[in-house]
Amino acid sequence: KQEVTQIPAALSVPEGENLVLNCSFTDSAIYNLQWFRQDPGKGLTSLLLIQSSQREQTSGRLNASLDKSSGRSTLYIAASQPGDSATYLCAVLSGAGSYQLTFGKGTKLSVIP
Amino acid sequence: EAQVTQNPRYLITVTGKKLTVTCSQNMNHEYMSWYRQDPGLGLRQIYYSMNVEVTDKGDVPEGYKVSRKEKRNFPLILESPSPNQTSLYFCASRTLDRINYGYTFGSGTRLTVV
C-alpha cells in the first residue's frame, strides 16, 4: 500500500527566504505526483503536476522535482512571501487499475513579514 | 469553466438523520472520488467510481454509500450519520483517457454531526 510522508510538518521562515518542502513515497510505481496548496478550511489548489517520466516542473517561483527511483520529491519556493503561507500537500497517483491518489499529511508553511 | 461543484458547503446535522452531499462535474470525467480530511490524519479516500454504475471502496468506506447513475454526478450518502463523521469532505474527478492529467477538486463540504 502506498504511503506518502511529508517533512517537515510545519515550517516558519522570514519573508524573502528560499525554502524546500520534502515528500517521500514508498512505492515507486507511480503515474504522477501532484503538489497542492490548501488555505485554512478551504479547498485544494493544484500547483504542479510531474509525470512519472519527468524530473521537474516549474511555475513562477515554484519548482518541483521528482526522483521516482528513490521515492522522493521536493517543492522549492523562491523568494517566499507572506501570501505563500498555507499548507502544502503532496499526492501520488498509483495503483494499477485503481488510480488512487494518496496524500501526505502536509507541511504547514508560515512566512513571517 | 471546468469545475467540480459540491453542495452544501456547510452542514450541521444530528446523529442518525440521513443526509446527502452532492457532487457534480462538467468535464465529462470518467473517474470520481470522495475524500475526507481530518486533523492529523490527512486526506483519506472514501469511495471512488471509474464510470457510470461502477463504484468501489476506498480506505475508509464504513458508514458511507455512493451511487453513480449519471456520469456527471457522484453523491455521497450518510444513512445514519455519527459524530465521528464530522469532517471536511472533498469530491474530485479526473479523466482516464490521459492518465498523466491531474485531479480537479471541489471546494469542500464541512460537515458537523452533533
Q: Number of helical segments of chain B?
A: 0
Global outline of chain A: globular
Quote the beta fraction of chain B: over 45%
Biggest sheet descriptor of chain A: 6 strands, mixed
Overall pLDDT metric of chain A: 93
* Interface with most residues: A-B, 23 and 29 residues
* DSSP strand tally of chain B: 11
Query: Which structural class should the secondary elements of chain A be placed in?
Result: mainly beta
The biggest beta sheet of chain B is recorded as:
7 strands, mixed
Rg on CA atoms of chain B, Å: 13 Å
> Outline of chain B, from the CA principal axes?
globular
Account of the 3D structure:
The complex is a heterodimer of chains A (113) and B (114). Chain A has 113 residues and is mainly beta. Helix content of chain A is 0%, strand content 60%. Chain A contains no helices and eleven strands. In chain A, the strands form two sheets. In chain A, strands 2, 4, 5, 9, 10 and 11 form a six-stranded mixed sheet that branches. Chain A is globular, with a radius of gyration of 14 Å. In chain B, strands 2, 4, 5, 6, 9, 10 and 11 form a seven-stranded mixed sheet that branches. Chain B contains no helices and eleven strands. The model of chain B has no long low-confidence stretch (mean pLDDT 94). Chain B has strands at residues 4-7, 10-13, 19-25, 31-38, 42-51, 54-57, 65-66, 76-78, 87-94, 104-105, 109-113. Chain B has 114 residues and is an all-beta fold. Chains A and B meet through strand 4, strand 5, strand 9 and strand 10 of A and strand 4, strand 5, strand 9 and strand 10 of B.
